[in-house]
Amino acid sequence: KFYLSQQSMVVYNVSKNGVEKSFRFFFFDFFVIVFSFSGTVADICRYLRNFNGVLQIMAAFVNSSIYRLKQTWDRISKQNKQVINKLQNLVHSDGKFKNLRDTLTK
């Protein structure tokens, strides 16, 4: 039942807006969910002291093709943005990863 309603929404949007705009509409919300979930996973990795996982997820966030998605970043909740910024400060390379080394020694 869900598949049929989703399929009819796709057909309606394609007929109304064209293919390119319709796919942007559906994938836009998907990216917001993925960004939020990735920030949560990175925070869990930090809690489990898996700093390599945190580093890899944060590296994906600062990738130029991801970083330029301004409208997607604007739709992410303030709480998720704060978590992502906190983790980016943790793995920032200033001072030979000083924040990360300090966290590892605690």
Which terms summarize this structure?
106 residues, mainly alpha, 7 helices, elongated
Low-confidence stretches: none
**Radius of gyration from the alpha-carbon trace, in angstroms:** 18 Å
List how many beta strands DSSP finds.
0
Number of helices: 7
Strand content: under 5%
- Structural class comes to mainly alpha
Order of helices and strands: HHHHHHH
Task: Please report the distance between the alpha carbons of the first and last residues.
Answer: 52 Å
What is the typical, i.e. mean, pLDDT? 79
Major sheet size, sense and barrel closure? none
Shape: elongated
Query: In which range does the helix fraction lie?
Result: over 70%
Describe the protein in words.
By secondary structure, the chain is an all-alpha fold. It contains 7 helices and no strands. The chain has helices spanning 2-17, 19-47, 51-61, 64-67, 70-75, 78-90, 98-105. Helix 2 crosses helix 6. The chain is elongated and about 45 Å long. The mean pLDDT is 79.
